[in-house]
Amino acid sequence: MDGSEQMSKRQLQALQTRENLLNAGRAVFLEKGFQKATMTQINKLAHTGYGTAYVYFKNKDDLFTELMETIMQKMYDVAGLPFHPRTKEEAYAQILKQTRLFMQSALEEKEMMKVVKEAIGVSAIVKEKWNSIRARFISGITKDIQFVQDAGLAIERFDAALIAKGWFYMNEQVMWDLVLGEIEEDLDAVSENLSELYAGGLYK
Amino acid sequence: MDGSEQMSKRQLQALQTRENLLNAGRAVFLEKGFQKATMTQINKLAHTGYGTAYVYFKNKDDLFTELMETIMQKMYDVAGLPFHPRTKEEAYAQILKQTRLFMQSALEEKEMMKVVKEAIGVSAIVKEKWNSIRARFISGITKDIQFVQDAGLAIERFDAALIAKGWFYMNEQVMWDLVLGEIEEDLDAVSENLSELYAGGLYK
C-alpha cells in the first residue's frame, strides 16, 4: 500500500462519516423539527465520536442546508427540463407537466418540507439558502420565458424576470399549502388551474 | 354629573390610554423591530403606569396584531372596492388599479411592513393573524372571480378559490420583495406585468 492509497481510504471513511451524519440529521430533524434538533442528538444517532459533527458541519443550520440541496435536487431536475416548445399547446403541456412534478416532488418529501418551512422562519442561514434556491428557479424560468418570447410564441412586452418571479411565487406558496395540508384541491386540479392561468396570460 | 356620564369619562380615558399604547407600540416596533421590542419599553414611552399595557393587551404579539389591522385597513379598502366590470378591458383596468394601490399602500407603510414580515417569522400569534388577513383577501378575490365567471367574462372552468389563492400569493410575495427592496422594477412595471398576466389568463 502506498501513501496515495491510504489517503484515499481515509477520504472514503470521511465521506462515509459525512453521509452517516447527514442520514442521522435527517432522522433527527424529522423527529424533533428544526428548532429542537441538536448536533449532540445527530452525533449520537450517527454513532460518531463526541463533537465529530462539528468537524464536518459548521452548525446545525449548515448540516440542514445540505439536506435541503438533496431534497431540492428532484425539483431542480424538473425545472431544468429542456423547454423548447414549438406551439402554445406544446408549451402548456410542458408547463403543466413541470408544475405537477414540482408539487409532487414536494409532497413526496412532505415531512421534510414541513421542517424546511419551519427552519426558514427561524434560521437566517436556512432563509438565505431558500432565497438562493428561489433565485435558481426564477433564473431558469426567466430563460424559458425569453426563449418563447424570442420564438414569437409569448407576448413580447412582458418583463420576463418579473413574470418568472410572479409565477414561481404562485407555485411556491401553493406548494407550501399542499405540504401543510392547507388546500382542499388535489394535485391535478392545482396544477391545471395554475398552468392554464399562466400559459393563458403569457402566450399569444 | 350622573353616574352614566362618569362611566363615559372613564371609558373615554381608557380609550385614550389604549390609543397612547398603540402609538407608543408603533414607535417602539419601528425602532427595535418585533423581537427586541418589550412591553416595558412601550409602557415607558406611553407614560402609562408600570404594567398598564397588560391591562389592555395580552402581550406584545396581541398589541402588534392590532397595529397590523390598522395598517391593513387601507389594503382591505382597496381589495373591497366594488368589482362589477362589463368588459374584459374594464376588468383589466380595475385589476391594474387595485394591484397598484395594494403595492403602494404596502410601500407607504414600508418600515412597519418590514416589522410585520419579521414578526410573521417569529410569532405564532402574528403568523395566525397574517393567515387570517390572507384568507380575507382570498375570499374577496374568489367572489370577484365568481362574478366575472357568472357574467360570462372569465373562463368558467377555472376553480375560483384556487385562482384567487394563486393570484394573491403572487401579489403578496412581490409586495414583500418591494417592501424589502429586493426587486429592481418600479411599481408601475410590477403592477402592469402581474395584472396583464392574470387578466390575460383569466378572461376570455
Polypeptide structure, described:
The structure is a homodimer of 204-residue chains. Chain A is mainly α. Chain A has two domains: 1-57, Arc Repressor Mutant, subunit A; 59-202, Tetracycline Repressor, domain 2. Helix content of chain A is 80%, strand content 0%. Chain A contains nine helices and no strands. In chain A, helix 1 (3-36) packs across helix 2, helix 4 (60-79) packs parallel to helix 7 (124-150) and helix 8 runs antiparallel to helix 9 (187-202). The first copy, chain A, is elongated, with a radius of gyration of 21 Å. The mean pLDDT of chain A is 92. The interface between A and B is medium-sized, with 31 and 31 residues.
* Global structural class of chain A: mainly alpha
Largest sheet of chain A: none
Total separate domains of chain A: 2
Number of helices of chain A: 9
Helix and strand run of chain A: HHHHHHHHH
User: Largest interface here, residues on each chain?
Assistant: A-B, 31 and 31 residues
Gyration radius of chain A, to the nearest Å? 21 Å
Low-confidence segments of chain A, given as residue ranges, are none
Shape of chain A: elongated
Mean pLDDT of chain A: 92
Query: Looking at CATH, which topology of the largest domain in chain A would you report?
Result: Tetracycline Repressor, domain 2
* Superfamily (CATH H level) name of the largest domain in chain A: Tetracycline Repressor, domain 2
- Described by its quaternary structure, the protein is homodimer
CATH class of the largest domain in chain A: Mainly Alpha
* Helical content of chain A (DSSP H or I, runs of 4+): over 70%
**For the terminal residues of chain A, how far apart are their CA atoms?**
67 Å
Our estimate of the beta-strand percent of chain A is under 5%
Task: Give the tally of β-strands of chain A.
Answer: 0
**Name of the CATH architecture of the largest domain in chain A:** Orthogonal Bundle
